[in-house]
Design goal:
The chain is α+β, with helices and mostly antiparallel strands. It contains 10 helices and 12 strands. It has helices at residues 11-19, 37-50, 66-69, 76-81, 202-216, 223-230, 237-243, 249-261, 266-272, 274-307; strands spanning 5-7, 25-28, 55-57, 60-63, 87-88, 94-100, 115-122, 125-130, 157-162, 167-170, 175-180, 184-194. Strands 1, 2, 3, 4, 5, 6, 7, 10 and 12 form a 9-stranded mixed beta sheet that branches. The protein has a 3-stranded antiparallel beta sheet with strand order 9-8-11, with no helix packed on it. Helix 2 (37-50) crosses helix 10 and helix 5 (202-216) crosses helix 8 (249-261). The N and C termini lie far apart (63 Å).
């Protein structure tokens, strides 16, 4: 099924038919740059290395908007929705992705109830999206899918490719898996959590019920899960209270039982995801080495300046 494709100037159509309706869309040729992928990669990694607030999340870097602003101006369309009046924002609400050819992200939907604007700055990628009302099976208590692949025959889905300058809007709770086709692929994400109660669909119900449950058993959770809960959507408690306002105690407890019942499926799931997990570890090592090399260069330059 073909995804809706708009011109960057079709502002009203996008905001009303897709953003407000939480339906995905692609805006073509939103941004262009004459720099090579290697030059942009080097510059971005140098900026990340100098930013003490940058943090690595899975296979991307979460950074402040200032880190990328001089290399790529934020599309004005995103600026209209990226405001604290209508959305919860983290301080570091820009994500920087570097992926080599052949890398494929496992099926997942993004946590924190995030809307995602994904700009293909360099390279090319193949996308697959699945609607939240035709859900995929997830690892218990997470938003990562249990198996490496699924039949899409009876699911509402889209398959498409993005080239340089294309912007994908992925609404909250939409499952996605992305394969890198270019030799070096650089993507910038702007992320936000809308200050609206989610639509009623199976994936939204699962996410808000899990969020409700985790907020109430926080002392029993791992340190990383507690941190995720406290920092939910960049706001913590206010965001959780808004998103879970319709969750009853019975629905929250029932969700815990449903998730626990899926635990026996985790072993075959890990086997199915084996190649993705190995690729993710390799990519993470590459990402860390790039920034570590830039940090060493920065420290060396500072040391040389001090000695002179």
């Amino acid at each position: 099924m073909g995804i809706a494709t708009l011109d960057v100037n079709e502002r009203e159509a996008f905001l009303q038919r897709y953003y407000a309706a939480e339906e995905p869309a692609v805006l073509r040729k939103v941004a262009t740059t004459q720099q090579t992928a290697e030059a942009i990669c080097s510059e971005l990694n140098a900026r990340i290395a100098r930013d003490p607030t940058a943090s690595m999340q899975y296979l991307c870097w979460d950074v402040r908007p200032e880190v990328v602003s001089e290399l790529c101006t934020m599309p004005s369309l995103i600026g209209e929705v990226l405001n604290r009046q209508n959305a919860f924002l983290r301080e570091n609400h820009v994500r920087v992705w570097f992926n080599l050819k052949g890398h494929r992200t496992p099926w997942h939907y993004d946590g924190h109830s995030l809307h995602i604007f994904n700009l293909q700055l360099k390279g090319r990628k193949r996308w697959r999206l699945v609607a939240p009302e035709t859900p995929l099976l997830c690892i218990p208590f997470t938003s990562v899918c249990l198996f490496g692949d699924y039949s899409l025959a009876r699911r509402r889905h889209y398959e498409f490719e993005t080239g340089e300058g294309d912007l994908v809007f992925v609404p909250r709770y939409w499952y996605h898996s992305v394969e890198s086709l270019g030799d070096l692929n650089i993507n910038l994400n702007w992320v936000l959590t809308p200050k609206t109660v989610p639509a009623d669909n199976p994936t939204a119900r699962r996410e808000v019920e899990l969020t409700w449950l985790k907020a109430r058993i926080r002392p029993l959770l791992s340190e990383s899960t507690r941190k995720y809960n406290v920092e939910y959507a960049g706001a913590g408690k206010p965001a959780i209270e808004l998103l879970t306002s319709r969750v009853s105690i019975w629905a929250g407890l029932a969700r815990g039982l449903k998730e626990t019942s899926k635990v026996p499926l985790m072993l075959p799931g890990v086997v199915s995801q084996g190649s993705n997990l190995r690729a993710a570890r390799r990519s993470k090592r590459v990402l860390r080495s790039l920034v570590n090399a830039e940090q060493d260069t920065t420290l060396g330059s500072s040391s040389g300046s001090t000695k002179s």
